[in-house]
């Protein structure tokens, strides 16, 4: 990517399909992941 970081994407879309959790939970997880990444990236500055 633009900043030279390696990016790893992990998905568990089967969990939604199987009814383990809803799309709203996935969105909640995504938002928390983004928040944590921002914190980590800012700590690197």
Automatic annotation (TrEMBL):
**Record-level GO BP terms:** carbohydrate metabolic process
Q: Which InterPro entries match?
A: HAD-like_sf, HAD_sf, Heptose_bisP_phosphatase
Coiled-coil region: none
Task: Provide the GO MF annotations for this entry.
Answer: phosphatase activity
PANTHER family given in the database record? D-GLYCERO-BETA-D-MANNO-HEPTOSE-1,7-BISPHOSPHATE 7-PHOSPHATASE (PTHR42891:SF1)
Name of protein = D,D-heptose 1,7-bisphosphate phosphatase
**Source organism (scientific name):** marine sediment metagenome
């Amino acid at each position: 990517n633009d900043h030279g970081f390696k990016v790893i994407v992990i998905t568990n879309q089967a969990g939604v399909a199987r009814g383990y959790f809803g799309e709203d939970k996935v969105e909640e997880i995504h938002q928390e992941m983004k928040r944590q990444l921002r914190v980590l990236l800012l700590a690197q500055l």
